[in-house]
Amino acid sequence: MLPHSYTADSLSQSQDLTSIILSSSTPQEISSACASIESFLHSHSPDQCRHFFSVTFPPLICKLFGFNDATSSPAKPKSQLANGWIDTVLLSDDADLAARVFSLLSPEGTLMSTISALDSLFLVKYVFPTERLPEWTRFMLSTDKDCSILSVICSLFKGKVGEDSINGSFRQIHLNVFEYYMFWFAYYPVCRGNRENLVSVSVKRSKKFRLENWTYSIRGSSSVNKREPERKLECNLYIRLLLAYLRSFVPVLDFRVHQSYGSLLHYASGHDGSIISRAEFLVNTFVHYWLVDNDFSPLPVNVCKSFGVSFPSRLVLGETIPTSGLGEAVKLFVEYLNLSLMQS
Predict the structure, then answer these.
(1) Is residue 1's pLDDT more than 60?
(2) Which residues constitute the domain of residue 69?
């Protein structure tokens, strides 16, 4: 048990660190905040970091991705997406700043190693905002019947459907620290693209929007994009992090993708169970946030029928406009999985 004085000191330091993070907007302030975070984590053992992850980590996510409030509804009117650290790096074209933030968030960095150690101790759990979940998941959580089988029908949510402490129903998604961060990481390009669509000049919809239409947002896929100056890869922090997370958490050797509602990955025998579990979680998270297209749900129709689950038709809900800017992340993700197929 930690001494009370040490616990109070840790809480005070976490609160001070939160203030530093929330006030950081310029490249110099962001670099200083990164250094302060790493200094705090280096000087505290994982079990001493509970205040950091309960008090400081949610505001850090807000600043990273430019969310004004990580718990507020995305339906609240906003003129534009606030510039978070990732956007600031991209706009500044500052390779040193990009390297600084990448070092903090990389799989080999102090933050990720602390998250891994903390999760192994089962010390912190978060409730992920329902309104930030994929649309089909929100639909299932809206009824007691569908909610009760969500963790059975979809492996991504196995063991993650928890009780709402306010109304007592099982309509919340509980995540550990790594899962919580990756849900926000996957949600970021969706949120950013949707907000850009809201503030952009309206265009006439085509009769049908499909997944292949997302290619317009992939750099180099159109004549307009070809005329745009190419930003340095090291300053496209989101894509760099995505590739780093895939390489670290989804090993490409000795696995193949197959059609199954239970798992998207099949590793040969001998792989560590925790590695397989983390790889499946990450791939499933990106699939459910990015690759649903206009089918509403990524779950196979026969699986839904076997459990008595019926999703509304897109003819009723209306077509979904392809999310602006998501194409680059989708292209990298799909190409990475294709690489695994060629090497297996």
Answers:
(1) no
(2) 1-123
